[in-house]
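Dear U.,

For the methods section draft, I wanted the exact inputs and outputs in one place so we can describe them consistently. I've listed the two proteins in the order they'll appear in the manuscript figures. Please don't edit the token lines directly; just add comments below if something needs changing.

First protein:
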Amino acid sequence: MKKNKEEKKISISSYLAKFKFGISMYILVYIIAGAGTVMQTILFARAIEQITLSLFVNAITTLAIIAGIVVVKRLCWYLSGIIYQKYANKIMAELNFDLARQAFKLNSKTYADHETGKFVQRIVTDPETVVNNLANLVDLVTDCVTSLVMIVYIATLNIYIALAIVVIVAFCMILERIRRKRNRKNKFDMRRKNDKIYSLTTEIVRSEKDVKALGLEDKLSEISRKYYDEYKKASYNYEVKDMNLWALRNAIIEVFGIMLLILGVYMIDISMLTLASFMIIYSNNGSLSSFVWCIGKIMDIFLEIKVASTRMFSLFDDNEYVCEKFGKTHLENVKGKIEFKNVAYAFVEYEQADSDKFMTQKELMQLKNKKRKVESVNQIFDKLSFKIEPNTTVAFVGKSGSGKSTILNLMSKMFEVDAGEVLIDGVNINDLDKQTLRNSISLVNQFPYIFDMTIKDNLLLAKKDASDEEIESAIERASLKEFISSLKKGVDTKVGESGIKLSGGQKQRLAIARALLRNSPIIIFDESTSSLDNFAQEDIKKSIDNLKGKSTIVIVAHRLSTIRNVDKIFFLDSGKIEDIGTFDELFENNIKFKNMFYAENLE
């Protein structure tokens, strides 16, 4: 029952329901305008009939009424545009917000398994596609009804003409059904290839310096060309097949329109149709073409909405886009004790579900109920156990691939264990609520993301109510004071997207200042001094030393010289803790550790 509620919550109709008054007003105004168009067309046909019968006064009166209808109709079009702009933006904002919020719920592995373009397109582009097409749908339905009214009106003039219209409309509907079926698969294929282009473009923009430094322009240009060629091929395939059916249908309608006029002339000759009726058929001959065209466009729009909606709401499908899961236990004062009990973890690669591929409702249900196929398994840990006491400083060291960063990801619940337990203050991390977990742990990554804001605003993200004194203290402890003092605008200096105006070391120090400002009981440093020069590294070591005894500090270090003063070092090898001790103890007793230190100092 709960699942059904969630599905209702994320349907398009639920978003429209939030603004039902505005949408109702929009549809009402549109109906009035559409009715005006219908009346205008019918009255114009009557005016033609009156003119052919030499009823000129009546014709002038009818045309005057048409003029009044035109004024009302245009006013309604204007009002509908105002209402649309107001509520379309609100609906898009709601969709964008909910999709972005859902993206925050996804776990780290989900992001690793999917391209950037998939997320951005689903959060930004697809909602706009849905809302704009819903508005187009109202417009087309109005035009369709207008054309249908005129077709019915023409059909009432003569039974044979009515039968001919029914036959041709039925034939064109069959063609439209064939066209729609062919287009569905091609549309999904185009979107999938467009996602790849978007992802690659985003990566090229973000890695501009590396691209130039490594001379990757030609190689990436080749990859870009390949992606664009694939997209153009899919687009061409879609457009050509669509165009062929459109052309066939339009040719049939045009030929039929001429045949209808021929039939009309013949029927005038045998006195089965008046000249006035023939003039009405002639002047509204385009209604049939317009009706069939509108039906085709309505089908196209339903397809666009279907594709965009499927892509958007696939973010809520836990089979493909797995979310983080939290418990309900809340801890007020976390002391910072960490324990791993028989933890097992493996990197498992699954066969990816493809939400960009068109599937029927039955196929979608089968996919949801189907177990995902495992493609590969890389066992990292099996029965890993250790304890970290509160307010101690510990480090994990070992060769690349030994599992150091994985431990930090499990500790901060970025990854979830396959077996065993990770405990914080004796409570299973899976039982803790989100607030407890996130507020208790600050993580400084090896490559931290700095937002396109000022230095101060980046710091306030960590603690929105931080005082100037707290900000200054965090800046000083992170060895940023001298750099910021050299800037004309100081902490009010904008750092650019992803901190592009900062060096690697400056970005890391800003990230460290951000973590220090939170003052969490557990602070994790993942290779966070790797980009610092020796002087800055020494300053960060002092900062970490200043935190000793105040927080539980966990460090993954590449440079062994940065962890000389920690309380305990866990030496990892092939996913197992091979040795534990202080720096001096390991240096004295563990030959692998000693060799790592010598290798580092020889570099």
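Second protein (the one for the lower panel):
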Amino acid sequence: MKQFQIEYSTLEMFTKNLTTFKDWCHSNKISKMMFQIYSEILEPDPINAICKTIEQIFPDAPYMGCSTSGNIVNCQLSSSVTIICTIFELPQSQFKIFQYDLSKQSVDAITKQIVEETKANIWVKAIEMYFTIPETSTTRFCDGMKDIAPDIQIFGGVSCSNDITSDASCVFSKIGGFSDKSIIILFYGGEDFYVESIKVTGWKPLGRKFHVTKSNGSILQELDGIPAYDVYNKYLNIKNDENFFYNTLEFPLFYEHNNTTILRTPVASNADGSITMSSDIDVGSVVRISYGDPATIIENIEEDSKKIYTFQPDLLHIFSCAARRTFWTSQEPTYELMPFKEMSPSVGFFSHGEFLRTTGDLNQHNVTLVIAAMREGVKKPCVAAPAVTNTHQLSKVPLVSRLATFISVTSLELENINNQLEQVNDKLKVASIIDGLTGLYNRKEIQTQIERELSNVKQERFSIIMLDIDNFKQVNDTYGHQQGDAVIIALAKILHNERTLLNNRTLFSEKFSAGRWGGEEFMLLMRDTDFSSAAFAAELIRQCFANTNFPNVRPQTISIGVTQAKEDDTIDTLCSRVDDALYQAKKGGKNRVVVV
């Protein structure tokens, strides 16, 4: 197989170049060829003019093409209109083009015909597909291709335009003409024709797993019972504005489907909190937000390129997601293709979505690079793949910033989840020790734990912290008991999270217990802790509560007393002393910590 690019600038110059190419083909006795046209121009008139010119000069040659978000030739960005001629050199090699109109035939009818055609043409070894952007998910189409013989490889891309947020796209061929709602199918095969196809993402899963609890086709409504948009806003600080699509390009959803890794890209955020995805995600799927790190992506591509190199291709067909082109904003859009550049001629385009058959199942991918390597004849003696070294320092500050937000939020949430799970287990085992409103230990349990520590105070020192919400009666009188409960619960949440709060200061681990002492009073038991450490922890809690925002209540404060247990303490003397410290904090002006 050989590949020739026919330059296009104007129709007149293209006609001249194509005529010169025809003379070369005639002198070299070339008879089996096919033209492929990739165009960033979507208007039918210039495309039809190019196609008509090919028909006039090469009346027997088939052609096909599609609209794109950018064209690729020899692993570099090509002109806005790219015309490639593929020449098949072996007589056994065969190819055949089909075009199906989605406005006239159902998806089921089309896939049934394709399956039947593969059975009728037993020489088929690979299927290349060009799709216009579908009005609905392509899942039904992919499922309909399952009956194709498992040894036939399938790959391709969804046509698009330079505006990757637009639904405008087209395909065209000699047999079906120009269409904005069609599928083009290209069969390859023959006795000495070989194909190897791979996909590369390079994106990695990030953080916790989410369960898809509500979806409708490509509309992702809820993850773990919360609106899907809230996940992107909470974990990545991505706003629901005109930049939502571009800001989420680096963070598609990552999940396993049909025994392979699938990426789905958020396309738009909706008013109801749902997100329109690039294709279906089924209810019950387990997904994770993923991230694209440039250096990691290049490493993966370099590793996967070795497989293609040992295949020894005559040429490569490349389908790269337009989102990847946008991702490489700090590099050339074809930067990641450099490991393939010296292997063989290549052609392809930036697509709206990519297709690849893996383990017998056809899937539509997003943010993915699909490479189809083709060869006529047997391989030459194997040559080791060349070592590829990336010397560029790759970094993306916006990505790092968003990852920092993600890690910060998920770390806190995971810790909260662990605490909540521990409390649930405790409730199931000993429901009597938990305060119903706050989820903290009740007075009886926290007092029992203090008494237990007193019995061992000679070997292990400990401190207790007593907290009381300032002027709490006024909250109930002014705003009502419901708002008063909200203030109590907010303080309880801080005490739930004091483990994370203190670990961030590298002070404590599993050394404390928190309980509701009564009404708006709380008690914190801190094991193996001296005055200064306990006082420091109390101050952190005071500051955190003082900075807590209550939507319906004015800012609130707490007073805190701190004391350390002594060998001769009883539960009464110890609690009396910490109560005295709390009294002094109240008397001294409130919103302060006093140590006795």
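Candidate sentences for the figure legend, describing the second protein: Residues 499-509 have pLDDT under 50 and may be disordered. The chain is about 35% helix and 30% strand.

Thanks,
Y.
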